[in-house]
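Reminder to self: tokens first, then the designed residues, so the page reads top to bottom the way the pipeline ran.
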């Protein structure tokens, strides 16, 4: 091994120890960061005054929201819904229902012309739906996750979540 490659090797292992792999994070930290991102995009979308910016922001919302929701259903909602407690089953089913409503609103918004009253109204409804959904999810679903899954399991869920997101294609 040459000097350069041994230096690279050492640098890599030191950096690896300092900066944990993304997959070692708790899934709730990943979900939190993604919720913040989507909520910020939706806030900007409803405040935007130009068609060009609205189009761009809507596209960013789609790219962020669709993979997040699909992966969340697979890695979080399904295991929560499979728990024996009725409250968990209801929380899981509520999550699925709200995702379906958000998805239908997003599809409708995608067909509208930016910077029209209809587009602005639909964007406002989507923002309100997501704000409500995130608030309840972070309270109810996350309480179920914390209660029923160990930190090791939540790290595994994070790896599964990131992998599931990669399988989602957004048109
Ligand atoms: Fe979420
Ligand atoms: Fe969700």
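Designed residues (171 positions):
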């Amino acid at each position: 091994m040459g000097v350069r490659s041994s230096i690279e090797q050492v640098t890599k292992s030191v950096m690896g120890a300092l900066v944990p792999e993304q997959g070692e994070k708790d899934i709730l930290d990943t979900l939190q960061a993604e919720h913040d991102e989507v909520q910020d995009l939706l806030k900007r979308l409803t405040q935007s005054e130009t068609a060009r910016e609205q189009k761009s922001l809507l596209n960013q919302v789609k790219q962020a929201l669709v993979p997040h929701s699909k992966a969340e259903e697979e890695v979080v909602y399904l295991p929560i819904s499979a728990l024996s407690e009725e409250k968990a089953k209801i929380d899981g089913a509520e999550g699925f229902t709200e995702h379906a409503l958000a998805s239908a609103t997003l599809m409708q918004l995608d067909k509208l012309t930016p910077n029209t009253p209809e587009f602005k109204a639909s964007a406002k409804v989507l923002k309100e739906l997501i704000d409500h959904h995130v608030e309840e999810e972070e309270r109810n679903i996350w309480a179920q996750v914390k209660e029923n899954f160990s930190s090791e399991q939540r790290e595994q869920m994070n790896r599964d979540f990131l992998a599931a997101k990669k399988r989602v294609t957004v048109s």
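Residues 31, 35, 68, 72, 137 surround fe (ii) ion (ligand 1) (CB under 6 Å).
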